[in-house]
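Intended use. Records like the one below are meant for learning the mapping from a protein sequence to its folded structure. Do not use them to infer anything beyond what is encoded.
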Amino acid sequence: MNLKKIKSGIKLVVILIITTSVLSCQSKNENKPNVIIVLSDDQGWGDLSINGNKNLSTPNIDKLSMSGATFENFYVQPVCSPTRAELLTGRYHARGGVYSTSAGGERLDLDEATIAEVFKKAGYATAAYGKWHNGMQPPYHPNSRGFDDFYGFCSGHWGNYFNPMLEHNGEVVRGDGFLVDDLTNHGIEFIEKHKNEPFLLYLPLNTLHSPMQVPAKWFSKFENIEVGQKAETNEEDITFTKASLAMCENIDWNVGRLLNKLDELDLNDNTIILYFSDNGPNGWRWNGGMKGKKGSTDEGGVRSPLFVRWSGKIENGKQINEISSAIDILPTLTELTGISSDISKPMDGVSLKPLLLNDNYNWPDRFIFNKWRESISVRNQKYRLDSRDNLFDIENDRGQKNNLSSELSTVRKNMLDAKKKFVDEVLSELPKEDNREFTLGSPEAIFTQLPARDGVGHGEITRSNKYPNCTFFTNWIYLEDMITWDVNVLEEGNFDVTLYYTCPKGDEGSKFELSFGATKIRSQITEAFESELTGMENDRVVRQESYIKEFKPLKLGVMSLEKGRGQLMLKGITKPGKTVMDVRLLLFERK
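Structure written out for the chain above:
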């Protein structure tokens, strides 16, 4: 045979083998189902029309229930960051070092694997748009935890929902319009961009968390109506409730936009969608007669809606009564998608796949634990042991009005034993003292933000509010006062430093110094920048958190930082006026 023909034939076979292999890989990759997780903030179980609330209409979220599965007994933690940590890891939040909602206690330990890392390793494009609340500085930042793209804010709450200051992959940017709409826009763009490959989209929305800001087009419907269903207490703030209802309908509209995009791109049959909330309602309002609200370990503070839709796979309108929890999300999604979890640490959650896809299963009873501060409650399929060790038949008494401790002493003892085991085996993993510093200069990151929230004001310097998440430092009237951050520089390098400040006219001219160890840079406020407090003009009720204002960026120059832990210190040198400045943020950019 002609040698040239033989070589040509071999080349053709090789090309065919490679092409077939590539096509096979592409086909296998494309068949992996997409995952969309929509997490609302401070929305109670009763804040949906599908759950019996006649004060509002949420047809798109209701549609998820009717075209998928509804978990009737799904539980989260009483506040934001613990629930988010459990979603990310499949493990109780205490195991990951999360014990608070600010001042560093919201950070998820770096040795915990996240859902984004798992899916990214399996070939998924990953994105998170919204409220992160599990650490800001890399490697705690979402970009360092498996998310290719992040847009939103890392704090526990935000002070403005209209064109606010946000970040995109660490860089400070300006939001576009109402925040929930803006986040959904980014989600839709992400879906369009990755429609031909598997993706994981995490949308942790910022509402219904206060401040209670919502556009007039949504609030006007409720402004002058009589609220029919109310809380079983006289503590309800009706205007707050109306703002909450308006926020719910805005979220529902945005969920509808997501569903329409999936229809448009013919992605329904290959997309798993989950919808739930991070804790109970953030105010007293109708919640199905349950006891408790946000911050409580009672039923009303921890029961959340959970809807799971996978068209063609999960039966329409399926009702699942077995108890479940946020710790179950990760193991469920890895099993549904057929990817390996490959996590070295054991998960506390279990896969809910048998409940979703099978009618015949043997599902054992289990205990689910809820904790916030000193309160711990325990739930099994029928009962709840509350934080005071009282026992209630939750199947028949969601309001926890009939204490059965004396009648069912054996059941109570079993739950007390389970509670003790949880304290001994899970809560013991949380250190008595948090010695974690705030990280700076992570080698894989370009930007690091050090906001006022994570700093300490000394002397007369105060925060703009006692809730630190979205605050700034003010009242800097004495040169001997200073602001410090406890930081650990993870890798030495040179960084462009930008300070975000305000300074009233007449006080410009102050000189100041930023230092870390022997490294110091000096600068001066040469331009006054006055900014009025804002937020109240868009608030539907008076907020508890800090009002906000605009801050001017000032480039300080290049700072050379050595690796190691120490105090980053901002102090004044001269002050010609009454104050040095107000401070919102330091931004470090690796050169």
